[in-house]
Amino acid sequence: MQVDVVTIFPEYFAPLELSLIGRACRAGLLGVDLHDLRRWTHDVHRTVDDTPYGGGAGMVMRPEPWGAALDELTGPERTPARLVVPTPVGEPFTQPLAQRFAAEPRLVFACGRYEGIDQRVIDHAAGRMPVSEVSLGDFVIFGGEAAVLVILEAVTRLLPGVLGNAGSLDEESHADGLLEAPVYTKPPHWRGHEVPAVLRSGDHGRVARWRRDQALLRTAARRPDLIARLSTDNLDKEDIALLTAAGFQIPAGDMAE
C-alpha cells in the first residue's frame, strides 16, 4: 500500500519510523511519503489560511494550496487513491472502516488545521476520487496529524505480512463486533490475583467458551451499543442464555447452533 500525507507539520510523523509501521516500510509492505502543504504556496509568507467567510473565530485553510497539492498527488499519471480527511464532522472510524481502507491500493491523507479545510476542496476532490471524511470520536483536537497516526496504525496492522501471527487479528477487540476477553500471562499468581483456572486447564474447548463468555459480558457492560447491533445469526444458544441472564433482551430470530 502507498500512503501520502499532506500536512503543514511533516515532522509530526517521525513515529512512523518506529515499531511495526517502520518495519513494514522497510520491508516494502507500506510506502509513506510526507508532503509539506506550504510547498504549494506562492507568497513570501507561505500562507495556508485566512479568515472565514461569514465571520467567526479561528482561521480556515485556503483552497488554492490544497487544490494544487491534490492536483499533483492524484493526477491521471498517479495510482488511483482514496482521499481521507480526518475531521470531527466525519463518519466514525471503526474496525470495518479500517479493513476497507486496508484494501485500498493508495490513501492520501489531508491534515486539516485551525477551523478546517475550505469545504470546496473536499467537494471538488469528490468529483475526481473517493473521499472519506473520518472522525476518531466526539471530541476536537488541534489538527489531523494525530488522527492520521491512529488511522495508519489501525490500517497497517491489517496489511498481509505486517503481523507475525496473523491469527491474532481474529481474536482481538472489534474483530467480530465484541470487545476482547481479558488476557493473562505468567506468573499464574501475582499480588494476590490468580490467572483463571480454566486458562490453565489445557481444555481448549472450555478455554474457547470462557473467552467467548467473557467477551460477551465485557461488551455488555462497557459497550451495550455493540451488543444491540449484534445479529442473532451470530449468537448461539449459550450466548443468548448468558446475555439474557445479564439482563439483555435479545430480539427473536434465527440463532446459530
Quick recap of the structure?
The protein has 257 residues and is of the alpha/beta class. The protein has helices spanning 19-26, 63-73, 95-102, 119-126, 145-156, 204-222, 224-229, 237-245; strands at 2-7, 31-36, 49-50, 60-61, 82-92, 106-110, 131-135, 189-190, 193-194.
What would you note in describing this structure?
By secondary structure, this protein is α/β, with parallel strands linked by helices. A five-stranded parallel beta sheet has the order 2-1-6-5-7. Helix content is 32%, strand content 16%. The chain starts with a strand and ends in a 12-residue tail after the last helix.
Write the layout of secondary structure elements.
Layout: E1 2-7, H1 19-26, E2 31-36, E3 49-50, E4 60-61, H2 63-73, E5 82-92, H3 95-102, E6 106-110, H4 119-126, E7 131-135, H5 145-156, E8 189-190, E9 193-194, H6 204-222, H7 224-229, H8 237-245
Helix pairs in contact: 2-4, 3-5
